[in-house]
Amino acid sequence: MAVELMRSLHWNTTFPAVSVCQVLNDETMADLLESIKCIALSHERHTIIRSEKDILNCCREMGLDRDYRMDNVMSDIAFYGGTCYSCEYCTTGQLQCPANLSLITEVYRLRCTALMSDCSWQGRPFDCCQFFHPLETEFGTCYSINSQNSKPKAATKLINNRYTGPGALRFKVKEDLQVYLHDEHSVPYAYVDRALKETVLWGMNKEIIFKVIELENNDNVHDISIKRRDCRFPWEFPENSLHLYNSYSFSSCAVECFIQTQIELCNCTHHLMPKSIKPLKICDYKGLTCLTEKSAELAKQRKQCPCLSSCVEPEYFVVYSSDR
């Protein structure tokens, strides 16, 4: 599969950030559940595997002889998307579930090298994972190029102008991915413009062509109060911000508001959320059950979050998106 992102320009400008996030593929998950067997449980319990008997005891729960309802739990935790109906097996004692939800995610989510390959910029190949860096999002760890919020943040920007011609970024996907286009200060989140995200399945050939309108602020804009100009610059964080990211943007504010809404309704935030500089309670299975029960209320409240727009956020318009 190849993705091509292009735009026509007459001056130096920064190519947008492109973020890729793994989505649940049942076949991949089934293979991992069979091959990993008891790794997650043994790490959780610090089990020392010394004999065939130890392996058999461990794999009865997470391996070949496991209760297959546990597969649903592992999928719902690793790719948590706002509901976890299988968590009821854990909260009611029907299953003895591993308590470390972050570890489950770490075991069953793939790294950058297993997600993509054959990257090139303007026809010049580069090592994908040297430039696509980890980015914490509400969907878990994604990988982003040209982002100021990734870890580490982009050291070199992809630039195009009248001399280089329209920017062209290509890469192949090795798993099913959600691909997001956004500016360098923004992050993927649940209510991103649908036109700026694409689900790209393994085997697809996807081409995206877009144009951009950039904002240019007068130098005096910085001197106008935030309340009056009704926007924030990337370095202007709200008071009591959790500082989830290096830069302020409407999307980063929306993610932070989502965390606060989860805490307000269920006294915890789910395990895939970005880490805050302030200690926050991470939901256990009971907490995820609460978030599931209140998912409709959460969705309603987060749409009402009082987030200001960014003063520097450009507008992206998809001109063409192939359907192959």
Automatic annotation (TrEMBL):
Signal peptide: none annotated. The keyword Membrane applies. Keywords: Ion channel, Ion transport, Membrane, Sodium, Sodium channel, Sodium transport, Transmembrane, Transmembrane helix, Transport. It is found in: Membrane. It is a multi-pass membrane protein. Belongs to the amiloride-sensitive sodium channel (TC 1.A.6) family. PANTHER family: AMILORIDE-SENSITIVE SODIUM CHANNEL-RELATED, PICKPOCKET 31. This is Amiloride-sensitive sodium channel. It comes from Aedes albopictus (Asian tiger mosquito).
